[in-house]
Amino acid sequence: MKLEIENLSVAYDTGAVLHGLSLQMEEGEFLSILGPSGCGKTTLMKAIAGIVPVQGGHIYLDGQEITALPIHKRGTVVVFQDMRLFPHKTVAENVAFPLKMQGVAKGERLRRARELLQTVQMGGYENRRPSELSGGQQQRVALARALAAKPRLLLLDEAFSALDENLREEMRNLVLQLKEEFQMTVILVTHDREEALSMSDRIALMFEGRLIQCGTPWQVYTQPVSRQAADYFGNCVYLPGTVEQGMFTAPGIRFPTEKAEGNYELLLRPDCLSILDAGDYPVTVETISFRGSDTVVHLRGTDGVLWKKAFTGKVNLQVGDTLRAALTIENPVLFEVSSAQ
Amino acid sequence: MKKHPLMKLVLVIALGLIVLPMAVVLLWSVTRRWPWPLLLPESYTLRTVRELLTGSASLPKLLLSSIGLALTVAVLGTIIAMMTARATELHEFRGKTLVRHGAFLPLLVPGTVFAMGIQLTLIRLGLSDTIAGVILVHLIAAVPYCITIMTDMTAAVGNKLEQQAMVLGAAPARAFFEVTLPGLLPGVLSSMSMGFILSYSQYFSTLIIGGGRVKTMALVLVPYIQSGDRALASVYSVAFVASALLVFFVFEGLLHALQKRGDRI
Question: Are A97 and B178 inside 8 Å of each other by CB?
Fold first, then answer.
């Protein structure tokens, strides 16, 4: 379903959490709300679901205003991080719960619950108690139960962070597959960059109750709007330089730009640095740490910039080696350094 | 779990403090003469039992009114406590701490002082000498304890499941009954037991506010203790304890039945 949020403000007793936030979402889209803990992303999710009262702004679902609609009438279903299966009910009754609320007859709702459990590969667990299931199984049941409610909008609240690494991968794939199968519009609230980058159609990046940037994973990663946004994805290196007469100049680098004259920092990520070429950017090996699947090498440029680069396969380097590396920049991102600093 | 030897000692002492006096009361209830320094009574009688069963105060009527009154207090007290606990645990509002601590104010004032004070108010309200008045006064005694139990329980259960239920399409009341109440059930039963026993054992407040029109077991029992008819006082005590225990057993059974039912559907 199409979701529109206009100028949304939410405040708790302790102060404002969301400051006039706006966001649009298309039908069938998978959007991740990404941000550090405490940035207000969970509050935004709760405001959409109607769990927290909003102080200002509007929320529309398919053009219909739902800002004042009670929780149970919104059709926005949340899968919480802690699953929240009902401990007094069996797995089948948990999944059948939304249907029971819709007044579906008992036989029919249990039949549908069985079907949905099959979909999430939990067939045969109908009569178990939630407490008898593992974390991953509980997550599957929670998903099946959410699907039973036929959500207009499915909200996943840090849904995978309670699971261990392997299981997380499996659940992500399951969610993407279910999204296609049931043609759902999904919002994933997460602080996990990799998760957001790999799963979403678009990412909404949040800091301190504000939406900083919204775009495809590629845009958000390669064209961050600020250093803060860039740093959130990590592995950033900044080369200080200046723009004069339409040219950015830094040690070893020179390219034309449309930016105004002044001091800038050029955003670089390790993939800009190629080691094997005989380039004009000398770096010294500082540390080498083997991590199994790859080896991380810390390299210090002559300009003092520290690079972390991962290599796969055998690394024939020694600490102290000096290499002639090269910098290749395809889409340069420049952040202005304010002269006040 | 391995039992600590000290724990065992505490258990034995506690048991001795309950079982021994109870045994003495049981013995006294059928004693005709028990002169000092005999270890056991000199002679026994069933006079007391006859008096209990067929005496001036009709036992079935007495039990019915006492238990009925105490159950009413237990149910009302638990409902009030549940609502108070939900308000203070799940909602934010001004004066929340005041409500939370204010609920315990009745405990600070001695019961006798309190009963005499509130009687004036109840007379003014036309509730003196009525069952409603007695229920009200018993509630004031019982609710603080019920609130303590329900507050802890509500804090433990929280409203997360209720939120989940609402998100899945359940109206607020439905969500409460479907997913929160089953979790609260043990607390509800404890709170009802507490409310029951507090009302059941009220003497002075029942006497003052009930004005003798509201008859309870405690009201009949206490004068016998004061008048010194130990045998009769004992037989009433036995009936008092036995009837209270019976109600507890019913509560306990109800809890198990409800939890079993919850297990099935």
Answer: yes
